[in-house]
């Protein structure tokens, strides 16, 4: 493994590598050390697959061959995990013990939705024909099962997946000789799937929204920004105005609940979450910031509204200490992130979900600002030369400069 000091990427992937063995990404950590007795989750390996492809694109665009090769190795591990845990009916088993035994569970809509989205990212980014053929087989089975999802976040992930695949299928440079049956399936089946899913999300919004509660459910719980994000992606593909209206109204409503009176971002706490008239302050999960960054980057890219671009930078600053405890949550030296922010301060365990949350946020900051340093300075985003100047100082203040 290469040291973070030799990475050409603007972030370190040392902790991601540390948490990954030859089976997959380990779910939890004791501090920075993998907690093997907790095993693996497909949720985390799907997210890691998505993350690795985001940074692989970055590496390819900049000619970072060593980083691209390292990411390709990780990608094969995460995809192999997902192909392994997929059942004959297309469903993905979520929880696996360290000795590779499938644990008893109820099938998860959320896991299925995250899995098909991650595989769709791979299907759109991968270049090797043999790997694409494998992705097409696993993804098609997963999609066939996902068409029956009913929980809100599962539906949202399917909408985002359909939008991504249909957008890719429109590209003139798409190699039709690789997985032609899969792309025929995308063109035939997914327009209807996207239409039904987006309309379903809008109907849920209209059934629950009232007054200062513009939302899809009677509570805001976890991974909240995935619903506005899905509708933004659907609008970007189709131009359906109502989908944009609901996406922006729900995103505004979510932001109203995620904003501290002092002005900084405040993830909805998991000790009660949020409902009309109530918003829990603790504990705050990095996942909420990450999904907000993903949604806001998509909203800025789609609508051109620079307010969303500024929000992407705010999400990054939450990880660097612009939060309720004024403490950094992420360590740029190894790319790890604390599992949550509590009344007593950061939870110093650095598991898979929180680390993904930090690294995917950084990926979307790069997408929003890497080619516009003036905008980065104006919005307070840390990219490129700005990152080299600021991130080490932030890490030293946060962690005392003690890095191995």
The average pLDDT value, as a whole number, equals: 91
Which oligomerization state do the chains in this entry correspond to? single chain
Number of strands: 10
Indicate the proportion of strand residues.
5-15%
The biggest beta sheet is recorded as: 2 strands, antiparallel
Helix content: 55-70%
Strand order, biggest sheet? Answer: 1-2
Order of helices and strands: HEEEHHEHHHHHHEEHHEEEEHHH
Based on CA atoms alone, the radius of gyration comes out at 20 Å
- Distance between termini? 14 Å
Structural class: mainly alpha
From the spread of the alpha carbons, the general shape counts as globular
Low-pLDDT ranges: 1-6, 395-404
Q: Supply the number of helical segments.
A: 14
Short description:
The chain is mainly alpha-helical and 404 residues long. Helix content is 57%, strand content 5%.
């Amino acid at each position: 493994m290469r040291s973070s000091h030799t990475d050409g990427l603007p972030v370190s992937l040392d902790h991601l590598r540390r948490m990954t063995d030859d089976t997959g990404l380990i779910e939890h950590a004791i501090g920075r050390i993998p907690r093997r007795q907790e095993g693996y989750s497909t949720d985390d390996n799907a997210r890691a697959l998505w993350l690795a492809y985001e940074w692989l694109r970055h590496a390819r665009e900049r000619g970072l061959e060593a980083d691209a090769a390292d990411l390709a190795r990780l990608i094969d591990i995460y995809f192999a995990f997902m192909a392994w845990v997929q059942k004959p009916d297309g469903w993905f088993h979520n929880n696996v013990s360290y000795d590779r035994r499938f644990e008893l569970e109820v099938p998860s809509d959320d896991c299925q939705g995250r899995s098909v989205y991650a595989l769709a990212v791979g299907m759109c980014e991968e270049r090797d024909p043999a790997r694409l053929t494998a992705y097409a087989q696993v993804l098609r089975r997963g999609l066939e099962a996902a068409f029956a999802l009913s929980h809100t976040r599962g539906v949202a992930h399917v909408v985002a997946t359909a939008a991504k695949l249909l957008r890719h299928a429109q590209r003139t440079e798409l190699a039709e000789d690789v997985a032609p049956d899969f792309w025929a399936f995308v063109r035939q089946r997914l327009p209807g799937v996207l239409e039904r899913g987006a309309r379903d999300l809008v109907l849920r919004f209209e059934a629950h929204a009232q007054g200062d509660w513009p939302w899809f459910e009677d509570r805001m719980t976890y991974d909240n920004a995935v619903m506005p994000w899905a509708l933004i992606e659907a609008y970007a593909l189709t131009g359906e105005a109502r989908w944009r209206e609901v996406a922006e109204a729900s995103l505004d409503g979510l932001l109203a609940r995620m904003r501290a009176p002092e002005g900084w971002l405040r993830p909805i706490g998991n000790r009660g979450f949020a409902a009309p008239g109530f918003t829990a302050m603790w504990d705050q999960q990095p996942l909420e910031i990450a999904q907000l960054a993903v949604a806001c980057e998509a909203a800025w890219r789609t609508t051109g509204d620079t307010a969303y671009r500024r929000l992407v930078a705010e999400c990054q600053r939450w990880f660097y200490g612009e939060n309720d405890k004024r403490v950094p949550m992420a360590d740029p030296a190894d790319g790890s992130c604390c599992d949550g922010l509590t009344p007593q301060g950061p939870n110093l365990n650095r598991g898979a979900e929180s680390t993904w949350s930090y690294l995917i946020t950084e990926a979307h900051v790069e997408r929003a600002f890497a080619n516009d340093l003036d905008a980065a300075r104006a919005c307070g985003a840390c990219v490129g030369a700005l990152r080299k100047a600021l991130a080490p100082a932030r890490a030293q203040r946060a962690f005392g400069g003690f890095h191995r």
